[in-house]
Amino acid sequence: MSSETFETRRTALADVVAIPVTPFAEDGTVDQDTHRALLRRLLDGGITTLTPNGNTGEFYALTPEERRLVTELTVEEAGDRANILVGVGHDIPTAVASARHARELGAGMVMVHQPVHPYVSQGGWVDYHRAIASAVPELGVVPYIRNAQLSGDRLAELADACPNVIGVKYAVPDAARFGAFARDAGLERFVWVAGLAEPYAPSYFSAGATGFTSGLVNVAPAVSLNMIEALRSGDYPAAMKVWEQIRRFEELRAANGSANNVTVVKEALASLGLCRREVRPPSRELPEAERAEVAAIAAGWSI
User: Fold this and answer.
1) What Enzyme Commission number(s) does the record list for this chain (predicted)?
2) Which of 278, 282, 275, 276 is CA-nearest to residue 256?
């Protein structure tokens, strides 16, 4: 794969990396028409990087067939309007099969979800990602890091073996640790994506991030774009004005160990008549008493 192709993909990561929701129909299946409509809304709103099968898309609650369907819908609907970063994970053969499926469809990148295992060694983390990245050398690979124990030199070790590891979604809620990790791994070597969305974006940008993920973007693309424009220009007071605007919404998502992370986003979309509010266990719909607050926040944004 040419360095120019990877450079294009690196540029795509230095942006608002949208994590679309997966809407469900009344019978509980993926609502394909609504999914397409929500993707078009993101694209029409100016979003150019999409992550099907991310956590806001309820990756872990989808069947293998549904994950493939979500990838196919996203690639087809986006066409040449967006760069696609497909979420993959679970055991190595499953992740590799998903990555190869993404490649066959024409997606340019995969995001590797944190290994879900009670015993993760740092060397084993490298081995896991190396097995996936080496299976799809044509694709840009983005590890999703939530492991505070992982050291930056391990990421460098991975990239030495797999030069297609081009970016990192860093989601440890510690800006000082992020700053150190990025420098230990190689600040210029990777594109650093703030993986905890808008609330952490200003602090992580100040330490070297150039992109951030977003679930809120499903509701109000312009709000997320306003934040990244401010951060790109180094206007932190303007970025923090957006931060204040989205603070309560993100607090509701983060409460109780992020129990309602997806729920709040879908509730906001439901209040706008854009999709049903249903989420799958182990997530749960918002209690009736909290729905009005989410609806009021969504209505107050310039949609």
Assistant:
1) 4.1.3.3, 4.2.1.41, 4.3.3.7
2) 282
